[in-house]
Amino acid sequence: MPYLDLMRDRLRGKIKSLREGVHEQILDPNDLNEDIVIKVDGLAAGKGVVLPENRQEAQRDLREMMLENKFGPGQSSLPPGQDHKRIFDGNRGPNTGGMGVYAPVPFVSQAQMQEIDKTIVKPTLEGMKTEGRTFVGMLFTGIMLTKAGPKVLEYNVRFGDPETQTMMLLIEGDLARLLLACVKGRLADERLELSPGYACNVVLTVTGYPGPPRAGDIITINAESDTQRHTHVFHAGTVLADGALRTCGGRVFSVAARGMTLEEAVQRAYRGVEAISFNGMFYRRDIASQAL
């Protein structure tokens, strides 16, 4: 299969996608003089090989595989989330590992999500397949929305932090089951179900972060607080030492909550923050403010 030619045609706009180009070339009557075996490029639960007896069957089988997704989608996307990288309110100060995230992002339209999928996600996956690097797992794509359209900032082959803490509150069911389905090539058999509403998390840091942090301060958590039933506290820079829970890193906690509205999710997260205290505790007070 002349993939270099297909890539050139894709770049020159002669074909809409590599999928379309492969479909057209393999269905050329001149290429069908021998017995043909068509195989899905990836796992398909033992059902990814077909043996068409003639050109018509080959056309049908290939169309079902490549254009109609007979073996199901090769990807499922989580809703977009917005991180807050700067240390201070108003996006001021040095960058951090992340001071809080909310999702979904209300000002990202469905049309923008479709554009991201069409111009970034799918070409990325197709490109990796073309290079023989079929990707299986969690692909994190950092994107910036610009006047010229969405642009890629980075890729990570993992969930983000603190993005994960927010997304976990939106995913219904067993995440491990979804990941196992990816490994076994059965993602099409699983349904990615999301909870209604929004989720938000706020990161608590120690004094000095993102520089060298202080450590060893005793942490107090009001477990009797009524707000705890609405929040999830994720530990990061904590340690049990000398009979007490103490700080031992820059980012200490991520306090997350879900709500039917973004405002409710944010309020619940900040009420959860109020139940925690330690010397030098710091957090941003404007997470999601640009979307409220």
TrEMBL record:
InterPro entries found in the cross-reference section: ATP-grasp, ATP_grasp_subdomain_1, PRibGlycinamid_synth_ATP-grasp, PRibGlycinamide_synth, PRibGlycinamide_synth_C-dom, PRibGlycinamide_synth_C_sf, PRibGlycinamide_synth_CS, Rudment_hybrid_motif
Biological processes per GO annotation: 'de novo' IMP biosynthetic process; purine nucleobase biosynthetic process
Pfam families in the cross-refs: GARS_A, GARS_C
A GO molecular-function annotation: phosphoribosylformylglycinamidine cyclo-ligase activity
Annotated catalysed reactions: 2-formamido-N(1)-(5-O-phospho-beta-D-ribosyl)acetamidine + ATP = 5-amino-1-(5-phospho-beta-D-ribosyl)imidazole + ADP + phosphate + H(+)
Keywords: ATP-binding, Ligase, Nucleotide-binding, Purine biosynthesis
EC number(s) from the headed UniProt entry: 6.3.4.13
Start and end residues of each ATP-grasp domain: 137-184
Domain of life, per lineage: Eukaryota
The UniProt record lists the keyword Nucleotide-binding: yes
Keyword Ligase: yes
Root EC class: ligase
Pathway in which this enzyme or protein is active: Purine metabolism; IMP biosynthesis via de novo pathway; N(1)-(5-phospho-D-ribosyl)glycinamide from 5-phospho-alpha-D-ribose 1-diphosphate: step 2/2
Family: Belongs to the GARS family.
Protein's recorded name: phosphoribosylamine--glycine ligase
Organism for this UniProt entry: Cordyceps militaris (strain CM01)
Record lineage: Eukaryota, Fungi, Dikarya, Ascomycota, Pezizomycotina
